[in-house]
Amino acid sequence: MATIVSYTARPRRITQALLLLAAVAIGVAAYALVWLGRFDELPPGLVEHAVGALVVAVVLQAVVMWRAPYADPVILPLVVLLNLLGIAVIASVDSARILYQDRSSAVADRQMLWAGLGVILCAALLVALRDHRWLRRYTWIAAVTGAVLLLTPLVPGLGSSRYGSKIWISIAGNSFQPAELAKICFAVFFAGYLVSRRDTLALAGPKVLGIRLPRWADFGPILVAWAFAMAVLVFETDLGTSIMFFGLFVAMLYVATDRLSWLVIGAVLFLPPAIIAATQMSHVRTRLTCWLDPLSSENFDRCGQINAGLFGLANGGITGAGLGEGRPNVVPFAESDFIFSALAEELGLVGAFALLLLYLLLVERAFRAAVGISDGFGTLLAAGLGFVIALQVFVVIGGVTRVIPLTGLTLPFLAAGGSSLVCNWIIAGILVRLSDAARRPAARQVPGAPSPAQAGGSPAEAIA
Amino acid sequence: MNRPLRHLWLVVSVLFVLLFTSTTYFQVVAQGRLNADGRNVRTIYNEFGRHRGPIVVDGTAIASSARSDDSYGYLRSYDPGAMYAPVTGYYSVVYGFSGLERALNDTLSGDADALFYQRISDILSGKQGQGATVELTIDAKAQEAAYDALDGKKGAAVALDPETGAVLAMVSAPSYDPDDLASHSTKDVQAAWSELNDDPDRPLTNRAIAGDLYPPGSSFKLVTAAAALESGGYTPETQIPGPGTYTLPQSSSVMNNHAGGGTEACGPDDSSTLQAALEQSCNTSFALLGQEVGEDQLRTTAEEFGFGQKLSIPLSVTPSTIGEDLDASQLATTSIGQYEDRVTPLQMAMVASAMANDGAVMQPQLVQKVSTSDLSTISELTPKELGRPLSASNAALMRQMMEGVVSEGTGTAAQIDGAEVGGKTGTAEWGDGRTAHSWFVGYAQQDDRKVAVAVVVEEGGYGSRTAAPIARDVMEAVIQP
Question: pLDDT by residue (tens digit) across B216-233?
Fold first, then answer.
């Protein structure tokens, strides 16, 4: 039983309110600048946009004050800022299409609607989910739901294939990426499962070459997780999604057991399917070629999208072309998969770094909640959700900037896409709930005070 | 569970460091290379998104940019297009730039070093920058006269101010409308482009300075005559041999005295004065004269006229040549403008301009003045002497002989009332069974107005009939008030 001094018992709700206001001001100003840059006039819906953003801020602030008074004051402002910046960049892509290509494009308006839905779900979650440990009851339900969701794109008639990957389902004309929701389910499942098995996973098993290997019996769930990742890779042919799930699982496994062997096993298990994908699947092979050498003349046409993105980055340079002054419309999918290149073109290296820092800060807040929270389930869930955001950012931006091959993931909160945005808002709600638990003074052990909860794995009971 | 969390955070940090590094690489380190990549459409958009300066002739813009509501921002248009196309060139989003649009791209777009302070002040005052205005030396009347006279023919005409080197007219026919290539509709541009390139008459070629070089024919006799005067052994009155036919040394080929196969001798006893030989354009006289003068003297004089020099006016001019390592018979045919003599019309206009400018050849220049959008002058034409092929007195003798050609020789069609006109016709054979190219090279002077001109009409036949009247029209347009 370690004694932890409560370093912050203060709610810091005023801080959050000010940060939210700053986020809204920056986001709305960016939206206005896009139109000023493109058409020399203010956007037609600027007032509605500003009022909408302000309402979102007020609602979030009120819900947090009501139901999560000790929540981390930075998470929601970060999320609001990312969402609004995303809308501004999408509006820039829209307006560039309208101005330069005479195409009608209103992705930004749809994104605003999805953001509204996301905020409502986030607020509803904060209201309904009073304690994050309630989620633990649904460990196995989450597992089944996640597995079903993940495999729905394979159902004939429901799934639809796009650009070589089958990760979409369409219902009544609306398409949806079920993997986004499955991500949350699996994070809940892994947290619940691992927290009850961590001791056997961590301590039992033979030791080989200084690495303690797990028992064969413990391999089961790992193999199941691996099999799912492989199923996604083989049948839905999407490397990004399988990297995300397997990365999430291995990271949470490592946090639960503190054993390096899991990381090694994870990496080794992932290699053969990755190699098979690289050699057998034509669109993965194309992406591999475009990763290694997109600018050579024989590959240039095939790698048009990544090249257009790289030219966009170069056009941005250090200070950027300016919002509404770039040419994001020449990059295919500049509003979704390639939104990073659109942002980096218009806001430059400065803006790109700022964006990366915003994400890093968000991940850091999740990790801080993981550290501060007193139950193992909460720690694992917070760490898992934080890590999956980091991994997703890495896979997307790394794909655009040729650190790794391009995959079909979306940048959290930024990229256009309803399922991704709504699910990420739900993640934000869970993180706020977790951070509230982490910072709530009664949940902490203060010298001299009776210990209301046990640190570590077993479920804690009384909450003041 | 804090230790693995710390490790996981370390992993996250490494991932983000990779992203910071890769972003920096593409936005800073590789930026220049990527922006310079010819396949980068943004570079084209940036290029075409600038307010390019106009090209001006006699106070009227012949090429100008106006805002367009499309991807590019500005549309370049030309008026009148075809007349000035050999000078302006085109400015195409698909096929790049040519002509002055390319040669002066930095100036027109505002990127030139000389416009640095202009750019700074535009940035400080928040004004939309505009490229510099380029005023040409072209005389609109002369250009129009040359364009109209060459209408329907293949050929070129160049007029120079002999004293400054200013290019007063430069026409290449047939021409094309650069508006067709400046269009922002890629499809239209591609269609126009392939049509222009498939045209056997090659309208995109600037025949005046950069086409296939032409054999100058008899007009080259001006160079031979100038070399003879410069050698010191000749005056216009010197008697030189001029038989009706001449068998070339070490050869069985027979040269006839007159173009078209005439075999009349140049004068009684198969000889005439140098002046008479030039007036009648006697081939045998000049074939023999060239051999007397020698290859070295001929080459020296030709190079002083500008042969062999790569000129930039600022359009780049293909160097003219008299061939290499000539034997006696080759020297004989070279002296009458055949064998490997290959010239641009501009070069022949420079030959005429030396005569009219007391023996000095001035560097030809197209740009009169460069000024910023707020009308402050950046640079102005400064005449530069390129060479001095003959002395002032010899130039006067040449003028005397050339006037003879126009007043009573083969060039009578170039006469202008009230003006002193001198010149030399040429009928250049260039292929078996093909009609000869028709040349006129000369100058005109009235009061203090001077002009030197060269006209070539492909397959135009006798220079005296086809090229000389065109040259007269152009010279008249310049010197007649």
Answer: 888 888 899 899 888 888
**Quick one: average pLDDT of A48-70?**
94
Catalytic residue numbers of B, as ranges: 218
In a domain, A6, yes or no: no
B445: CB partners within 8 A, 6+ apart: B356, B419, B420, B421, B451, B479
Chain mean pLDDT for chain B:
86
Beta-carbon pairs below 8 A across chains A and B = 130
Does A441 contact B at CB distance below 8 Å?
Answer: no
Q: For residue A70, give the nearest of A395, A432, A445 by alpha carbon.
A: A432
pLDDT for residue A361: 96
User: Of A435, A442, A439, nearest to A460 (Cα)?
Assistant: A442
Query: pTM of the predicted model, to two decimals?
Result: 0.68
* H or E element that contains A24: helix A13-39
Is B283 a residue whose pLDDT tops 90? Answer: no
- Sheet of A159-162: strands edge to edge? A159-162, A165-171, A174-176
Which pair of tokens denotes residue B156?
Answer: 């070129």
In this structure, is residue A70 part of a structural domain?
yes
A453–chain B Cβ distance below 8 A for any pair? no
Is position A61 within any domain? yes
Closest chain B residue to the Cα of A357, Cα to Cα: B16
CB-closest option in B16, B22, B34 to A360: B16
What's the structural domain count of chain A?
Answer: 1
Nearest to B424 by CA among B282, B230, B304, B233: B282
Q: Per-residue confidence at B15, pLDDT binned at 50, 70, 90?
A: very high
Structural domain containing residue A279: 13-443
Tell me if A311 and B22 make a contact (CB, 8 A cut-off): no
Position B113: which residue type?
Answer: D
